[in-house]
Amino acid sequence: MYITADGSAAQGIYALDRETGETQWGIPGPNIPEPLVRTEDVVLASYDRYELVAFDATSGDRQWSKAMYDGDLFAPAVGHRRVFSADKKTVYGLAVESGDVQWEQALDVAGPPSVVGESVVVPTTDRTVGLSIEDGSELWALSETSATGCVPISRGLLYTSGNSVTLRTNCD
């Protein structure tokens, strides 16, 4: 189990044994305002100083880090051996193993990305956008700014607006 501690002498990231609660490893550091994300053998943290960092899940050793420059980072999403991170102006597709940026897409991002099937779903300030996992190209967009809720589902997105419920998929 991985946790963050903030505003105390123990500020940082900690790996705890699920059974005993004992600390397996700890990394003191700055505030991490977004939830930690684990994929395979990597724990990802979005530091509030605009840096995405990958740590080895077993040892806590730093694997790689990537500076992001356009504002606070949202929590990353993972899927298809990639990490999808976003700041307020850009969505990034990175390799899990190295942190190498595979693509970037400029958007006015309003929240964290989600992986849904073959898409990276990104809420923006005026719409919801589905980007290709492979190259970041826009696959679809929903301009309904009055949506009151949306739920990622396999190969699509279920969302509500007013009294209607709509299913948007990546299928032909």
Structure description:
By secondary structure, the chain is mainly beta. It has one domain (2-169): Lipocalin. Helix content is 0%, strand content 54%. The protein has no helices and 18 strands. It has a 4-stranded antiparallel beta sheet with strand order 4-5-6-7, with no helix packed on it. Strands 8-9-10-11 form a 4-stranded antiparallel beta sheet, with no helix packed on it. It is elongated and about 45 Å long. The relative contact order is 0.11.
CATH architecture: Beta Barrel
Q: Report the C-alpha radius of gyration, rounded.
A: 17 Å
User: Which structural class best describes the helix and strand composition?
Assistant: mainly beta
Fraction in beta strands: over 45%
**Unreliable stretches:** none
Q: Which strand order does the major sheet show?
A: 4-5-6-7
Global geometry = elongated
Helix percentage range:
under 10%
First-to-last CA distance: 40 Å
Q: State the domain count.
A: 1
Q: What is the strand tally? A: 18
Task: Could you tell me the CATH topology label.
Answer: Lipocalin
* Number of separate helices: 0
| Mean pLDDT rating | 83
Order of secondary-structure elements: EEEEEEEEEEEEEEEEEE
Largest sheet: 4 strands, antiparallel
- Given this structure, which CATH class is correct? Mainly Beta
Features:
four-stranded antiparallel beta sheet, Lipocalin, mainly beta, 0% helix, 172 residues
